[in-house]
Every structure is written in structure tokens, then in C-alpha cells.
Amino acid sequence: MTTTIRGRAWVFGDALNTDAMYPAFAMKLDIPEAAKHVFYQVRPGWTSQVRPGDIVIAGKNFGLGSSRPVAQLFRHLGVAALVAEEFNSLFLRNAVNAGLPALPAPGVTRLFRDGDQGCFDIATGTYRNETTGATGQARPLPPLVLEILASGGVLPRLAEQGYLPAELADVLRSGAIPADAGSGGA
Amino acid sequence: MGMTMIEKMLARKAGLPQVAPGDVVTVEVDMCVLIDLQFATLWMQPSRIHDPDKVAVVMDHAVPAPSLKDAEGGPRARKFVADFGIKRFYDVGRHGICHQIIAENGLARPGEVLACTDSHTCAAGAYNTAARGLGPAEVYSILCTGSTWFQVAPTVRYEFGGALPESVSGKDVFLHIADAYGDAVNQNLEFGGSGLASIPVGDRRTIATQAAEISADFATFGVDDVLRDFLDRHGVTGYQAAEPDPDASYADVRRIDLGILEPYVARPGTVSRNGVPVSQAERRRIDQAFIGSCANGQLDDLRIAAGILRGRKVADGVRLLVTPASQEVYREAMRRGYLQDIADAGGVVTNSTCGACFGYHMGVLGPGEVCLTSSTRNFTGRMGSTEAEIYMASPATVATSAVTGVITDPRSLTS
Ligand code: SF4
After folding, report:
1. What is the pTM assigned to this prediction?
2. CA nearest neighbour of A84 among A134, A15, A150
3. N or C: lower Cβ tally within 10 Å for chain A?
4. For B125, which DSSP code?
5. Which ligand 1 atom sits closest to the C-alpha of B294?
6. What ipTM was estimated for this complex?
7. What is the pLDDT of residues A57-73, one digit of tens each?
């Protein structure tokens, strides 16, 4: 897997919580419908502007809150990676487990504005704003986390290890359904 | 160098002599708890699992099913437990909110690791358990493999001194801590000290539960006589408790004099640096008062609420909702007459479920409404409309305010 992720940045503020990304009413909807409500409070209409390959950059305490599978919604929208000054650890794990790279990068929100082109290497932690030329250094993700990401998340990994029925493993490999196993808590 | 309480647990479960902040460790998980929501969307039954005796399935968040989607999850859960011979299945009727079920059934054991698909799983830290909420995919992975990984975070220790005054509860202790110290992102919390003896186990669980609100990783309490007695009564024996080393290294040690605490309320949006003693709070009019959730739908919470409501009436224009944390709490509260007192006062007692706590069913707030809740989370939009305001306080403060119709200090109520 390439550990370099390039994409257009969307920059958000501090303490964005899971309920703001995946509200309870959206939990009653299927993933494609639910995905239309990401950031519905803080930036209404964002889900029709975001394009596959974009990168979400957020501030401190990103993802405080529930275990609900917000990463599924980002993946559905085609978001390529999450980067933040600081992550809530449950939220970071959920992203990684869903195969969505999540990189803690202190200082990053000062270097990016909406629409800038960013390039992040999650294995070395180096990153660059290709629009302005500014660069930064984050701590690289631990090897175990990189391994999970390389598998595309925990479920494809479990499929490789034979924990899932063969037909499901095939579907997972094809990427036809998001790599998750049910909806999370609250 | 010495280890903190959580470092001790993680080292032991990882089979290592020592762990330190920053280390990534793979640990064995002793109990893996799945909730109903896991079965409602995208559930796929695994072909094999690690160990059915280390699994529990709890129907809690959306029971009885409020939507077709949730209704479809039930049969999948039942099939799963039947196919794999999972004995710890808490189906509707013997159900409760997962963290209450974990407590009642002794699923959390000192020094062991517990994982569950609800973010407030740190609740079981009250029993000296390394417990964490994890996402559905990860819990699924633990179900299959029996293990997971953690990156060890630095620990902050709270040293309690003095004794908890009358009318001040674990909720108030937590709201004070959250207000005074703010977020604990990527930190573990550890609680101990001579004052611990004055905090009942249920209130310790409230504190541990709410650690999720300040973004903490694990929140663990030491083992003392009060906890030992609780564990005995719940059939938890043969455990190996984890106590910190005297030379453990902490990110910070904070001393809290319990004796000077008073009832607190958190203002809407967050509990972090957003609280105020109720005695100094604005006397805001409320539309809904909620006593429930894994944090504060315990028997003691219902006892306190019933004591305040007995012989009084819920104010006009206020809806008081009371949701027992489990069917067992419900039945015991009924036996003791608490539910009668609550209903006689004009409160509505619901079945045990997460319900209003996460704005999913039974008590969703409308635009412009103000709620005072004893549940776990006061994010904007958490309990329904994003234009509703959610204040958070103890069951005593909520019950008192339901009677007066405005946010009121429980100590001000005269008999
Ligand atoms: S009551 Fe609320 S916080 Fe507790 S488990 Fe249920 S949804 Fe989560």
C-alpha cells in the first residue's frame, strides 16, 4: 500500500463530536442516506461539496463521543484520510479499523486552508501543503496501525484469517460494501 | 520504574514485565460485550469466534424496537447466540443498559480487560477493570480473535480526601472535575485516596462512565473494602486486583477535597470547563427532566429521586422521564415503591433502555426546548433537536428541578 495520501483539504475546528457527524436520527438510515448528514450542524451542505479523495483536517479532540461508525460515512463520501491536531483515541481507532487513515498532526490546522492541496505520508509523518509550500512533521503511525490500514481495515484482515464465511470475504475484497460489522453504540 | 494502575493491567494482559506511555501492546480481552445496535445494520455472522464464554450480548439501546431496522436486528442477535452457544444473552425482559448488565452480572473483574461497543464502557473501571468502548468493527474483531491492541497513554491520578457530603453525588464529583480540569484527551484517569471510602460503588461507576465525556481512554478505581463487598455480593471471586506502584509516574496528581464539593450543573454543549455550582447557576426554566442512562438510572438514583418526589408534584409544563438502568433495577424499584412515588408525582417511568439518552426514542427534544438530564452526554443535538439545550446534573438536582420547574439546588428544598 502507498502510505502517501494526496488530496484537497477541508479544514474544521476543535472538539467536533461524533453526534455532529453521525446524529442519532441518521442512525435510523442506511449508510448512503446517513452520510448526507455528516457535519450537518457545523457546515450544512458540506456533503454535496466533498469529492472522493478529499482530506478532512480538524482541530483538537477530534471525534469526542460515541463509538458509532462515523468512519463508514467518511469512506462512503470518498474521504481519503483524516488529519487532526489531536484525536479522541476511540475515534482514531474506529477510522483505522475501517481502513481510513487517521494521522495526528499537531500544528496542522495553522498550515492549511479550505481547498489547499495536501500531501501526507502516514508512515514517516511528513506532510506538505502543496498550495503554499509549507511543510510539517507528525509522529508516524505505529507499525501495527499501518498494517491494519494496509489490509483495508480489520474486517478484510479477519476475512484473510478465515473468520468470515467465504462469500462474505469475497464481497469484502471487492469493496462492494463498507468494511464494518454492524452499527456502534452511543 | 513503577507503573500506574492501568499500566499494571495492560502489562499483565500483554504478558510483559513493564509498559510505559507510548508503547503499543497487544492484550488478551477477558470479556467482549456486544449490543443490539451491532446487529441492526450490516451485521454479518462470523464463521467462528474465539470463545463463547468470553462473550455477552445485551439488548439495550433500542428496545423494544422503535424502528423496523432495529426490529430486524433482534432475530440476528438471537440466531447468533443460539448458533455459538453464548450463555450470557440479555434479551428483552432480562435486559438492561449494557454497563448496568455488566455490573449486575459480574462481567467486569478487577485487573481484567473488558471491551464493549458503547463508548461509556470505561464505566467498568469502577471495578478496577481495564474497560473501554470500542467501535463495532473492533469489537467484532475481538469476538473473533480474543485480543486487541492499545497504545498506552499517560495517566492522571485523582486523590480523593475528605468525605462526600449529603446531597452531593458521584455526578457532582465528575461535573466538578470536568469543569475544573477540562478534557483528558489521550490520557488515562486513576482514582483513589482516603476519601474513596465515602463514595458508593454506584457513584464510582457514574464517575468512571463519564470519563468518556472528557475524552479519556481508561478510567480506573482502586480496590477497597467497599468494592470488595460489592464484588462478593455479585459473585466475583478469585480476581487479581491491580494497584499502582508507589513510584508510578503520573502526568499529574490532583487532590480533590470531597468535603467542600456541592451540587453542580453543566451547561449545554459539553461538560468540559462548562459547569457551575447549582447554587450559582441561572434558574433556567426546563421543559424536560430526565433521570436515567447507564450513569444515573441505578437503584440508588431512583431511590433519591423517589425520596424527593414523594408527596410532591412535577411542575406544570415539565415532563419528568425516569428510565431504570435495567429490568432488575426496574423490578426492585417497583418492589420498594420508588416507581409508585415517581408516577404519583406525575413522572413517567419508561422501560429500561438507552432511549432518551442518545435521542433515539422515548423522549426526543424539540426545537427551543430545555432539558435537565442526569444522563451521560450534553452535546448539542444529542437528545433530539440541535436547537434544544441540554443541562446536566445529578438525579437529586433533576428531581428537585422537576418539582420547581427551574434548575434548583436539591439542598434548597424544604420539607
Ligand atoms: S445510556 Fe446513553 S451513554 Fe449509556 S450506554 Fe446507553 S446510549 Fe450509551
Report:
1. 0.96
2. A15
3. N
4. G
5. 4
6. 0.92
7. 999 999 999 999 899 99
